[in-house]
Design goal:
two-stranded antiparallel ribbon, 49% helix, 15% strand, globular, binds S-adenosylmethionine
Amino acid sequence: MVDVSLKSLGATMEPDAAKLDALMGRMVGDLGAAASIALAMLGDRLGIFKAMADCKPTTPAALARKTGLHERYLREWLAAMAAADYVAYDRETKRFHLPPENALAFAAEGSPAFFGGAFEVSQALFLDADKVADAFKTGGGVGWHEHSACLFRGTERFFRPGYNANLVSSWIPALNGVEEKLKQGAVVADVGCGHGASTILMAQAFPNSKFYGFDYHAPSIARAKAAAKEAGVDKRITFQKAAAKDFPAKNYDLVAFFDCLHDMGDPIGAGAHVKEALAPSGSWMIVEPFAHDDLADNLNPVGRIFYAASTMICTPASLSQEVGMGLGAQAGEKRLKDVVKKAGFKSFRRATETPFNIVFEARP
Ligand SMILES: C[S@@+](CC[C@H](N)C(=O)[O-])C[C@H]1O[C@@H](n2cnc3c(N)ncnc32)[C@H](O)[C@@H]1O
């Protein structure tokens, strides 16, 4: 018989039967969640959720006609999504429908409730695990650019709804005098801009201002340029491939870092360059994932997601660059303040926050 006793593993404590039962229950839920997300991603990618966004009851056959997909696959997918409670099922009529709340979460691209982008980011955690496993052994890094393309696309789709909901209406007004400057006509740099969602949003809101978006990842800059053209703001945004420590200085009124300072190997060096690049009265806006200073206070559902992303994406990204500080996505205010002060900024404060982000303002 195979010895599966804990003692054979070197354990020094006996398991408690009730706690084991509870853990097994949670694990069934977690495994189901991981499996459901894989299927929800198919629904997102194949346009099935969007085809159900009218919230009307449907059958696999009707959905097959509407989407052009095969009925047998749709029947199984609908059953799986109904078991996950992502799709509703009526036992009497044997029809499926997407309730309106679920339509927001799965089909309404751009809504603050939309999860399609987050699903794509979670796909990268699995796809790129081999590279991260190697890095665990070598202590080396995995650059942002070394990840699967679903990470870049997913990050944009995941973050854009939060920027739509908060950036212009509450984050910029929370900074000292910045909104007024942007209305009058300011010069702004968005560093680590990725696909440029935040840059484009600011350019749309402040037509008198001029915007520069920088990122070291060339394919992201190419996508940002195309997106600016589609949004009709390409005349007022210059996207350019540049790293945080060497983007061109232009006496900016505002330099913004959206969810990227902790991804950088040398955040202090980046901050020192921001100080050089800013006008003397300028502001550095740093948007970071929400975190408390103490790890124990981050052990909650949001911290669970951020620590996972930090392990698989953010920390390896930082360790792949020079200095390799490895701040992590749950750095917290105290450590971020230390970085900003070491970069030479005199003032640093928490300007505002949401359940997912903290917005800091630093002044030279
Ligand atoms: C989590 S993504 C955030 C992207 C974008 N700011 C957003 O909010 O959608 C982090 C970004 O930082 C960029 N990045 C990482 N290290 C960088 C560096 N040293 N200089 C410039 N960009 C960097 C990555 O290429 C990536 O686009």
